[in-house]
Amino acid sequence: MTFLKRQPRGAAGVAAVLAVFLLVFLVIPVVKVVFVAFQDPASGAFTFVNFIDFFNTPLFRESFANSLYVACMSVVVGSAIALPLSYFTTRFNFGGAVLIQTLGVIPLIMPPFVGAVAMQLLFGANGSVNLLLDQWVGFTIPFMEGLNGVIFVESIHYFPFILINLSAALHNIDRSLEESAQNLGAHGMRLFRRIVFPLAMPGYVAGASLVFLKVFDDLGTPLLLNVNDMLAPQAYLRISSIGISDPMGYVISVILVVFSLLSLWTSFLALRGKDYASVQKGGGGLAKRDLRGGQRAMAYLVVTFVLLIVLSPHVGLSLLSFGTIWSFSELPDGYTLANYQEVFASSSQYITNTLLYAGLAASIDVVFGTAIAYIVWRTGVVGRQWLDYLATGALAIPGVVLGIGYLRTFNEINVPFVDKPLASWWVIIVVALAIRRLPYALRACVAALHQVAVALEEAAENLGATKYRTVRRVVVPLMIGGILAGFITSFATAAVELSATIMLVASESDAPLSYGIYVFMQSAAGRGPGAALGMIAVVIVGVATYLSHRVIERHRRERRETAGDVAPAI
Amino acid sequence: MSTEPVRVSIKDLHLSFGHTQVLKGVNLEIEPGEFFAFLGPSGSGKSTLLRAIAGFGPNPSGRILIGGEDVAVLPPWRRNVGMVFQNYALWPHMSVRRNVAFGLQERKLPVAEIRERVDGALDLVGLAELAERRPSQLSGGQQQRVALARTVVVEPRLLLLDEPLSNLDANLRVQMRRDILNLQRQLQLTTIFVTHDQEEANTMSDRMAVLNEGVIQQVGPPMALYDHPANLFVADFLGTANVLRGRFVDIDGGCRLVTDDGIELPVKKYPAAGSGVVILRPQALNLTEPEAIPDPSQVVLPGTVRYREFLGAIIRYGVDVGPHQLVVDHGHRPGEPIYEAGMAVAVRVDPTHIVPLTE
User: Fold this and answer.
1) Which candidate, B181, B185, B162, places its Cα nearest to that of B56?
2) In this complex, is the C-beta atom of A476 within 8 Å of any C-beta atom belonging to chain B?
3) Which of A121, A346, A447, B63 is most deeply packed, by most CB within 10 A?
4) Of chain A residues 478-537, which have a CB less than 8 A from chain B?
5) Alpha-carbon gap: A281 to the closest alpha carbon of chain B (Å)
6) Chain B within 8 Å of A455 (Cβ-Cβ)?
7) From chain B, which residues contact A within 8 Å (Cβ)?
8) Which residues does chain A have with pLDDT short of 70?
9) CB-CB neighbors (< 8 A) of A483 in chain B
10) Chain B CB within 8 Å of residue A3 CB
11) Pairing status of strand B190-195 against strand B35-39
């Protein structure tokens, strides 16, 4: 418990600026969207008629059911992949454990929409796998048929959320908890049901609700797979074809937000008060067993199989980007660099725009994240918790909704000198990216700040450094590792954001990579260059992820070295 | 490095964390150049009081005068009081030299002077050759010295030490105790230090204040507090005390404490008639054979040995006297008589060692 006295006027001023930013670019647009959803388009009066219309339209009812079905099925399929993997790594002495951990992050490097088209070429009705199946065993599997395709692509991209959370939960179970249960007579299924399962449950639920949220809100994947009867694509299509006055887009937005909030709430409830990090000295995790020969072979077989599937979007995308023509055949007809040449020659603005937008957005995120973290945890500014709530609240706002909100709110506002509505100026894309990634950057900054003992600040103030000087000379230098990691995470995820971007791109010259991929992938001829752009995006994000991993590791190592001298304050 | 030592006056200081009152009207005068200790159990408010002097924690009401100036309204960085933190709070991203130079840089001194004064301070604590190390490369004792150097190099008006020895092992603690005391004498700095260890307070401080539940219980030199505690809390906190409850009455012109079971103990004077207690320090009591020739000046209480513990320098006896159990310490000298559990003994005490208190 830390009570700091005196509210420095400077901190209150910074807090006010941050609050205004969040208000203008997060709260007002979202409130506006909700408002319009409950407004009669003609008279402007409060009404439920839009919602009644929504549920009276068969297409929307179907879209709603489809979105729910796809999100739930993705959780089921994702769990089916993640459960055995996390069980292997935590229960057995198994060399593949490292492989699984690495494999776990690979899908996260690439958002699902990037690989969607490549997946169609591999697993579609006339894709490589089905051609081979047809040829050798005489039947095909409809992996990519309609909603199946969305479920398939989403679950192999998002199962790592379950894997990571569940593995962490299993890993945090102290061996002594299991052993004391055995000591008291429990074993086998009973042990699993009464001890292991309840302790691991919160981690699983947290991961599963995250998958649900991601899939339910996703716009790019269904769009690229040409599955339009789902909620997010419907919202996009209504707004982009009928216009920003059509109330259906807003109704869908409200539904998306409500479900996002529900799944976040579920995850929060699952984890609340269940900090089962019960590991004591001497090593955590369940007692590991050795695998016998046959079991070992089986385990490797399963892992290899999953690995193949998980890597298939990347493999497919590479083939597509280096291929000449790929249609009705197992592999492309020939290989070429032409796609890359075309992309670099004619579409390099996508790349530069992406670097610029993601770089700016990530910079805004870490500066604001650091400021919010400091204000919330280290000052007495009144209402400071609200900055945290607001910034974190962005998690619950799907990109489509934010995009629609911006269009509605900022279309009337003209930017001086540029002479354009704010809603179609490229800067608004940066702002949208910054708002959407702020929660992640903020968590990184808060974690970094918690590593800095309050006494270190007090020591500086005691020796004559003002608050501002203390932050500059002591707090920020000690947080720098965490801040960098936050920057890179924000950058990498902003670089491949599509759902808000697609709503806000006003002209092709202002468009980033993700939009370019979307545009190229629309036509059969554009798939090659689109895949090349996708590969470039993967490389950018991959490099950034690797860097962030390195930074975090180094930071952790340094922390460990200095851990002895400064225990966290009070 | 010498400035006129300052006086510290704390007047009617109140402080709360939310609705929890932590300091309840503290009044204190600390003489210039004094080595003063705040002693108390955890939660007594001693650290909070120290931090309030440095300007940390919630805003207190009341006045804190340092050398006559009321600092209660100043932010920490304007107070010029040096504080050494319990965990030293050395900045892990700076070398020893940069840690020590920090305060001087904040005071915008010329580079040459900073260098000279940092070298001087590191010499003072005997760490000149470790100036380029990182804090993580130093032992606990060395870190403590760096923290001291970093604080005294800015020539603060007042030195505050928050549990300075709590993170050191026993041998180092004794050494560091002497070093800190020497440094304080050398610099002639008014110094306040916080501890929960009465041995530390006893050995180091000129005077000390014993705190409990946000209230100062008693102020004075360590020996005076030990021998003449103002209340039961002070008596008990400063060392083992046998407590006998009863009523103070005048019998035959002399004052006595009479317990419920009829034991009478003479006292020189008592605070107020009515119920009260006396305390008897274990080492003020003496055991003999029951039939030994009585010394007429001593009080004799018949009892039975319940247990004996050999603690090295002393032998500690638990003795049942009626319904009471008294702890008696005998200095251990080989060859002196030993009393076994179950033996009948006489507990003897000099009336001057019987300390009366109200409850």
Assistant:
1) B162
2) no
3) A121
4) 478
5) 21
6) yes
7) 17-18, 54-59, 75-83, 85-93, 102-103, 106-107, 134-136, 138, 143, 150-151, 154
8) 1-8, 95-96, 103, 273-287, 328, 556, 558-570
9) none
10) yes
11) parallel
CB contact under 8 A, B91 and A460: yes
- Closest residue in chain A to residue B104, using alpha carbons only: A463
Which DSSP helix (H) or strand (E) runs through B319? Answer: strand B314-321
**What pTM does this model have?**
0.80
User: What is the nearest CA distance from A219 to chain B, expressed in angstroms?
Assistant: 45
Q: Which residues contact A345 (CB under 8 A, 6 or more apart)?
A: none
Q: What is the dihedral of CA B116, B119, B122, B128, to 10 degrees?
A: 180
Read off the amino acid at residue A141: I
Nearest CA-CA partner of B242 in B210, B282, B270: B282
Buried b (16+ CB within 10 A) or exposed e, A521-557: beeeebbbbbbbbbbbbbebbbebbebbeebbeebee
Average pLDDT over residues B77-94: 90
Each residue of A111-167: pLDDT tens digit?
888 888 888 888 887 778 888 888 888 787 888 788 998 999 999 888 888 888 888
Say whether residue A560 is in contact with chain B using an 8 A CB cutoff: no
What pLDDT, on a 0 to 100 scale, did the predictor assign at position A274? 60
**CATH of B8-236 among 3.40.390.10, 3.30.1330.90, 3.40.50.300, 3.80.30.20:** 3.40.50.300
Judged by DSSP in three states, A564 sits in: coil
Q: Strand B20-30 vs strand A414-415: parallel, antiparallel, or unpaired?
A: unpaired
Cβ-defined contact of A565 to B77 (cutoff 8 Å) = no
> Which of B75, B92, B134 is facing A6, going by the closest CB pair?
B75
Calculate mean pLDDT across residues B300-319: 93
How far apart, in Å, are the Cα atoms of B253 and each of A88, B249, B267, B279? 88, 10, 12, 22
Q: Which helix H or strand E contains B66, and what residues bound it? A: strand B61-66
Architecture of domain B256-357: Beta Barrel (2.40)
pLDDT in tens, B126-136: 899 999 999 98
State the best of B20, B50, B98, B102 to mutate against chain A, taking most chain A CBs within 10 Å: B102
Domains of chain B, by residue range, sit at 8-236, 256-357
Residues B55, A562: C-beta atoms closer than 8 Å = no
What are the helix (H) ranges across chain B?
Answer: 46-54, 96-106, 111-124, 140-152, 170-187, 198-204, 222-227, 232-237
Q: Which residue segments constitute the domains of chain A, with CATH numbers given?
A: 55-336 (1.10.3720.10), 338-564 (1.10.3720.10)
